[in-house]
């Protein structure tokens, strides 16, 4: 197996990407890890990181976080993101991972890797932690803000396959994000999507309210990219606010500090459960090959877990299974 990484993508690149990729190469010697980055920048970082399955492929450009995605992809043909997506299409690598510009990765995935037949718009699909300790796959969280009902139908089908094959859930429950659980609730988009998803060969549990989502009422949550991105950002913000407030309260007095010492192991366990670094990245589902968006703030641990996720994605043949299921639905 061969997995390529964008060495220049993310807030902590290239150091965190190099370290996380090296840890992954050391953990899985059967997987060749290829870093895509400028040789002048990367070579000093890789001097003491030497393994036979850990290599650098030089590129002369990279796309910054603030650049306009489509223009950057068209202008920077030798950037790490564009080269990585092209390598997937040309079967030079089995998967590509980037923590860089999300819009650019989406554009490069569409132009460079291409869409699966039967998929109109790819979906960005991270795993959300839940109160049950079992992750929930959410799609879409920003790749396609203006979705149509058939897009949500496709997300439900793809999400069910990934939840089963990558997350290991038996007969995963698929829910539709809405403002109420009743069938007739919501906008024209969600009402029509409800009927379409009902007709799919998935375990559809109906509408799900945002307040219930993190309590494990479904394994796959389907939504348009606009609503999904708000849900993602709000969830991250609330989690951070709660931990910041807890930290203030638990260090306020000597007695509180003593209580914090007693609760320390439980708080650490809870923090690990909701930490994005432990969940790897968010696949761009619907492309012809595995392209994974890692969190923009990824550290070495998050990069390592993104490689772990990509390996599982490839080993389970998720792309071919999505394609086959789409053909069955079309024939049916």
UniProtKB/TrEMBL annotation:
<keyword id="KW-0012">Acyltransferase</keyword>
<keyword id="KW-0444">Lipid biosynthesis</keyword>
<dbReference type="GO" id="GO:0006633">
    <property type="term" value="P:fatty acid biosynthetic process"/>
</dbReference>
<keyword id="KW-1208">Phospholipid metabolism</keyword>
<comment type="pathway">
    <text>Lipid metabolism; phospholipid metabolism.</text>
</comment>
<comment type="subunit">
    <text>Homodimer. Probably interacts with PlsY.</text>
</comment>
<dbReference type="InterPro" id="IPR012281">
    <property type="entry name" value="Phospholipid_synth_PlsX-like"/>
</dbReference>
<keyword id="KW-0443">Lipid metabolism</keyword>
<comment type="function">
    <text>Catalyzes the reversible formation of acyl-phosphate (acyl-PO(4)) from acyl-[acyl-carrier-protein] (acyl-ACP). This enzyme utilizes acyl-ACP as fatty acyl donor, but not acyl-CoA.</text>
</comment>
<dbReference type="InterPro" id="IPR003664">
    <property type="entry name" value="FA_synthesis"/>
</dbReference>
<dbReference type="GO" id="GO:0008654">
    <property type="term" value="P:phospholipid biosynthetic process"/>
</dbReference>
<keyword id="KW-0594">Phospholipid biosynthesis</keyword>
<protein>
    <recommendedName>
        <fullName>Phosphate acyltransferase</fullName>
        <ecNumber>2.3.1.274</ecNumber>
    </recommendedName>
</protein>
<dbReference type="GO" id="GO:0043811">
    <property type="term" value="F:phosphate:acyl-[acyl carrier protein] acyltransferase activity"/>
</dbReference>
<dbReference type="Pfam" id="PF02504">
    <property type="entry name" value="FA_synthesis"/>
</dbReference>
<keyword id="KW-0963">Cytoplasm</keyword>
<comment type="similarity">
    <text>Belongs to the PlsX family.</text>
</comment>
<keyword id="KW-0808">Transferase</keyword>
<dbReference type="GO" id="GO:0005737">
    <property type="term" value="C:cytoplasm"/>
</dbReference>
């Amino acid at each position: 197996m061969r997995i390529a990484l964008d060495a220049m993508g993310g807030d902590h690149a290239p150091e965190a990407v190099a370290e996380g990729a090296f840890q992954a190469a050391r953990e899985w010697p059967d997987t060749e890890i290829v870093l895509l980055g400028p040789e002048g920048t990367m070579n000093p970082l890789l001097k003491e990181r030497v393994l036979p399955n850990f290599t650098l492929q030089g590129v002369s450009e990279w796309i910054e976080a603030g650049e306009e995605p489509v223009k950057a992809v068209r202008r920077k043909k030798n950037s790490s993101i564009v080269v990585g997506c092209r390598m997937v299409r040309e079967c030079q690598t089995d998967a590509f991972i980037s923590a860089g510009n999300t819009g650019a990765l989406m554009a490069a995935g569409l132009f460079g890797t291409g869409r699966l037949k039967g998929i109109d718009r790819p979906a960005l699909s991270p795993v959300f932690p839940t109160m049950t300790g079992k992750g929930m796959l959410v799609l879409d969280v920003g790749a396609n803000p203006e979705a149509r009902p058939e897009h949500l139908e496709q997300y439900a089908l793809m999400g069910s396959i990934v939840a089963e094959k990558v997350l290991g859930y038996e007969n995963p429950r698929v829910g539709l994000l809405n403002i109420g659980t009743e069938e007739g609730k919501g906008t024209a988009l969600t009402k029509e999507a409800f009927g379409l998803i009902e007709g799919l060969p998935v375990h559809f549990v109906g509408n799900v309210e945002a307040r219930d989502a993190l309590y494990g009422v479904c394994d796959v949550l389907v939504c348009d990219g606009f609503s999904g991105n708000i849900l993602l950002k709000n969830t991250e913000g609330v989690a951070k606010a709660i931990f910041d407030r807890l930290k203030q309260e638990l260090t306020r007095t000597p007695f509180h500090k003593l209580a914090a010492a007693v609760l320390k192991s439980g708080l650490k366990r809870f923090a690990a459960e909701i930490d994005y670094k432990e969940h790897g990245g968010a696949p761009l589902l619907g492309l012809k090959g595995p392209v994974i968006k890692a969190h923009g703030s990824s550290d070495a641990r998050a990069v390592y877990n993104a490689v772990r996720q990509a390996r599982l994605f490839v080993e389970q043949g998720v792309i071919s299974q999505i394609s086959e299921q789409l053909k069955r639905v079309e024939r049916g």
